[in-house]
């Protein structure tokens, strides 16, 4: 199973993108939030992935964060929600909105997504009501919370910096906040080394 991809962003379409990893182009579907968060074509990008295998196809789906992937897995556990519908929901709602909609049983909010009718929206909020506790509630793709790695638009180092800090023992939420603060000071052009150094200082305060 392919858990993540890191390489040069080769192209971005309306609902998919291609990352070149060692000369091999990997096509993956994604939400609009993830596609926006990937950054410019030609730069290094990292995506978490889910491999979908059926009798007649193998497909990769990419996510800007592990949290978004968790939401995708949870959504597709509901009968009638396939990959396309799940990505439409993740394009329309960020993590906090999705969590709030399910907690309050707000089917109208979920029905904002393309391809989601009232009946399916009702089934989603009903079946997932008691299953969202372990998933981050922060905004997907460009935000961070427990279990989410931030990938900010225009930055190719955010996810790597967050991973570096979590590898040193910081909680994902702490790492995400520290990296976001460091990026705010250094700007999008900062090197990974500079980003990690400043983020470490902020996280250690």
N→C terminal distance:
38 Å
Tell me what the CATH architecture of the largest domain is. Orthogonal Bundle
For the largest beta-sheet, the strand count, sense and barrel status come to: 5 strands, mixed, barrel
Tally of structural domains: 3
Approximate helicity band:
40-55%
Task: Give the overall average pLDDT.
Answer: 83
Q: What structural category arises from helix and sheet content?
A: alpha+beta
Element order, helices and strands?
EEEHEEHHHHHHHH
| CATH homologous superfamily heading of the largest domain | 5' to 3' exonuclease, C-terminal subdomain
* Top-tier CATH class of the largest domain: Mainly Alpha
**Rg value:** 17 Å
Please report the number of helical segments: 9
- The low-pLDDT segments are 138-155
| Percent of sequence in beta strands | 15-25%
Description:
42% of the residues lie in helices and 18% in strands. The chain is α+β, with helices and mostly antiparallel strands. It folds into three domains: 4-63, OB fold (Dihydrolipoamide Acetyltransferase, E2P); 66-127, Orthogonal Bundle (DNA polymerase, domain 1), CATH 1.10.150.20; 158-204.
In short:
The chain has 205 residues and is an alpha+beta fold.
Topology (SSEs and partners):
Blueprint: E1 4-12, E2 16-21, E3 24-29, H1 32-37, E4 44-53, E5 58-63, H2 66-75, H3 83-92, H4 95-103, H5 107-110, H6 118-127, H7 158-167, H8 172-186, H9 192-204
Parallel strand pairs: 3-5
Antiparallel strand pairs: 1-2, 1-4, 2-3, 4-5
Helix pairs in contact: 2-3, 7-8, 7-9, 8-9
């Amino acid at each position: 199973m392919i858990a993540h991809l890191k390489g040069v962003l080769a192209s971005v379409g309306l609902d998919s993108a291609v990352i070149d990893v060692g000369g091999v182009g990997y096509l993956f579907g994604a939400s609009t939030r993830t596609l926006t968060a990937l950054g410019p074509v030609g730069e290094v990008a990292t995506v978490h992935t889910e491999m979908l295998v059926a009798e007649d196809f193998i497909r990769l789906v990419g996510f800007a964060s592990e949290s978004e992937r968790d939401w995708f897995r949870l959504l597709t556990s509901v009968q009638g929600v396939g990959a396309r519908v799940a990505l439409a929901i993740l394009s329309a709602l960020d993590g906090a909105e999705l969590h709030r909609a399910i907690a309050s049983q707000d089917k109208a909010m979920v029905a904002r997504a393309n391809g989601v009718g009232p009946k399916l929206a009702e089934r989603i909020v009903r079946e997932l009501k008691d299953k969202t506790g372990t998933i981050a509630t922060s905004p997907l793709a460009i935000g961070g919370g427990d279990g989410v790695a931030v990938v900010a638009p225009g930055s190719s180092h955010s996810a790597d910096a967050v991973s570096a800090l979590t590898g040193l023992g910081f909680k994902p939420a702490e790492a995400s906040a520290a990296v976001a603060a460091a990026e705010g000071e250094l700007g999008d052009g900062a090197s990974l080394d500079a980003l990690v150094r400043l983020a470490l200082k902020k996280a250690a305060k």
